[in-house]
Amino acid sequence: MKILHIYDGHERVYPGQGSVPTVVYELAKHAAERGHEVVVIERKWNGLCSEDVLDGIEFKRLDLKIGSNVPYTEVPYVQIKSLHGTTRLVISRCEFAYKAMKLLKDEHFDVIHAHLPFAASILVTLRPKLGDRMIYTAHVGEEGKRFGLSASAPLLLKLFSPDLYLMKRVKRVVVLNEGLREKLLTYKGIEAEKIKVIPNGVDVKKFGRFTNDEVEKVKKYEIDGKLIIMYSGTITPRKGIKTLVRSAEIVVKQGYRDVVFLACGNYNIDRGFYEEIMSYIASKGLKEHVKFTGFIPYEDLLILYSACDIFVLPSFEEGFGCSLAEALASGKPLVGSNVGGIRLMIRDGWNGFLIKPGSEEELAKRLIYLIANPKERDRMGRNSRKLAEEVFDWSKIAEKYIEVYEEVVKE
After folding, report:
1. Is the domain covering 2-201+393-410 a CATH 3.40.50.2000 domain?
2. Which residue from 41, 178, 309, 319 puts its CA 20 to 30 A from 70's CA?
């Protein structure tokens, strides 16, 4: 098969550049390893070539006039909060779609795999027949906003959801968890036979033990001699950061002072929220125990997964949770909210604990149990690694996608 991946997002398609870019890269790489011809279209990022081949994947990068060519500088989450940002986002995606259309006229692809709804919606509007060869993976974390199910959804998304528009015009829709599938069937009328549930995966062999010299490299994050409770992801309200910080306050007050809560991730997406959190930390005397690293190199992140003792993801919504999958592959006990894709990776009491979203008391209780019981941490960590190997390794996830591609081609 000749497979095209379309990614019009704000990061480069490469492992460690964000959840969705990592997914695109891994799916493309594994399909190429199986002998398929694979092309990825993305923006031409500053310093990268217009055409490139990596791990058997052919990259075609579009040189756009509108929008930044530096990753993370124009984030849709922020752009849609203002008329200027929304206008710029729409124009940029229209330009992306126009230039992608020229490529699609010159080359035939058996399958077109879209990972964001913006440019793909324009493509299927201008050339409806493309939908007959297209699948769309809804990498959705904020379901309420994205599908207009929440009162807090931006007015634009209440009036028009690019996700739903695209879903109704493509051959297959892939969602990351059963809960979202049920919502689409119940509230949005998407046909049952069209929707597939396939979780994201993890490159299990990348995660595990590191040498002492490698671990030395991450001591700059002020974790030496501490029991490390780690979070990885953007520093935004929906990720449950307030819950994490308030649970840290409870843990420290209970006398567990040799503990550090290490929050790894970009805090500039919602700078006002980050400053509010830092003010709270200062007011409660928690600076020694709660540390925010900001965005860190992926090679450091891999080592930190191995170096930490417990991994936490207290999100209010989570389509899948790639960071949780990486902690799973690193063999760590997990504590996460009982929502979305988190339920797929945490088997309560077996490799970690599920908690009620927003409950700092329950989170603190589970963390204190794991802090006080190192044998339980080891047992749960071994179970996490086993689950990652048996269920979530990318080789298994990619095979499920190839089956979907084959269905599309046959129809």
Report:
1. yes
2. 319
Its CATH class, for the domain covering 204-392, is alpha beta
Structure-derived torsion over alpha carbons of residues 334, 367, 318, 54, reported in degrees to the nearest 10:
-40
Residue among 327, 311, 303 at smallest CA distance from 217: 303
Token pair recorded at residue 33: 């390893």
Residue given tokens 């993890």 in the structure block: 202
Cβ burial of 192 (10 Å; 0-12, 13-18, 19+) is: exposed
pLDDT in tens, 210-247: 777 787 778 788 777 789 999 999 999 999 999 999 99
Residue type, 105: K
Specify whether the CB–CB gap between 140 and 163 falls below 8 A.
Answer: yes
Predicted model pTM = 0.84
Phi-psi region of 99 (alpha: psi -120 to 50; beta: other; left: phi over 0): alpha
CA distance 363 to 312: 9
Which residue from 325, 335, 326 is spatially nearest to 377, judged by alpha carbons?
335
Domain borders along the chain are 2-201+393-410, 204-392
